[in-house]
Specification:
Structural class: alpha/beta
Helix content: 25-40%
Number of helices: 7
Distance between the termini: 40 Å
Oligomer: single chain
Shape: elongated
Strand order of the largest sheet: 2-8-9-10
Largest sheet: 4 strands, mixed
Strand content: 25-35%
């Protein structure tokens, strides 16, 4: 008897559904049972969890499990983790057979800690569990593997391909490197040096594949506040347009203009005013 139940999440993942799970997260593939039925034909229990359309924070659960109780339990567990309004239930019940206590084991594997994994995949095939993806810290990687081993009985084996990578915000901050994106005075026209920085930021954003990035424009305190708010918004929009032209998904970028309201330095000096004239990249989920 072999397993085949699949839970799959979207955010730029590879094989099977090509995506990653909601909140930058995890594509889960749980392979449960493939059994010989009385007809002698093999049938696979399958459940697929996938994020909805781009920009829509939905977790879609689809596939086939062996009974209604298993279907209800898995959907309820996902709704508990991600919120009822984010889970779309397309899970079906069919003539398939899973190993003993399979639903219980999969339910234990579906823990809130999986939200720490980005661009990942969880696969349970027979009694072998494989977890792949990216986490921010080594401690997270070790804890996830330990938690999964403790959730299963000794007949299951746990393998992982988790990689520790820099957090998305850290990656973006390092790419900007405290530089200011320069514009022509009093306008939203990027200077050549500013264009080059935006090109570098586009590369960093494509790398981290953040689902949400807020572009926040700021100005110094010279001139009227209303004009500065409008200018900061126009500059953020100009940066967004160039990022989109360089391949960053448009629906991942939002813009706002704060004008002079959030200075990071004193406006009493030119050096301080130069620091305050900036575009902030704030990574969200």
């Amino acid at each position: 008897m072999r397993g085949m139940s699949e839970m799959n999440g979207m955010r730029g993942m590879s094989p099977l559904t090509g995506g990653t799970w909601a909140g930058r997260a995890l594509r889960v593939l749980a392979v449960a049972a493939m059994a010989q039925l009385c007809t002698g034909r093999a049938s696979a229990a399958e459940a697929v969890v996938a994020q909805g359309a781009a920009g829509v924070p939905a977790v879609v659960v689809s596939g086939t499990v062996g009974d209604e109780a298993t279907r209800v339990a898995l959907v309820a567990r996902l709704r508990e983790i991600y919120g009822a309004d984010r889970v779309v239930d397309q899970l079906a019940v069919g003539p398939v057979v899973a190993p003993p206590h399979w639903a219980q084991h999969v339910g234990q594997l579906l823990s809130p800690s999986l939200r720490q994994v980005r661009h990942g995949q969880l696969r349970v095939q027979g009694q072998t569990v494989l977890l792949q993806g990216e986490v921010d810290q080594e401690a997270q990687r070790q804890q996830l593997v330990a938690d999964m081993a403790q959730a299963l009985n000794p007949s299951y084996s746990v393998r992982h391909g988790l990689r520790v990578v820099a957090a998305a915000q850290s990656t973006v901050d390092q790419a900007l490197a405290n530089r200011s994106i320069e514009f022509e005075p009093g306008s939203a026209v990027l200077r050549p040096a500013g264009v080059l920085i935006v090109h570098e930021m586009a590369q960093a954003l494509r790398q981290v594949r953040a689902p949400r990035v807020a572009l926040i424009g700021h100005t110094d305190a010279l001139g009227g506040r209303a004009a500065n708010v409008s200018l900061s918004l126009a500059r953020a929009q100009a940066v967004r347009d160039l990022l989109v032209a360089r391949g960053v998904p448009a629906d991942s970028l939002s813009v706002s203009g704060m004008g002079p309201d959030q200075p990071v330095a004193s406006n009493a000096s030119e050096a301080g005013r130069a620091r305050n004239r900036r575009i902030e990249f704030r990574v969200g989920s």
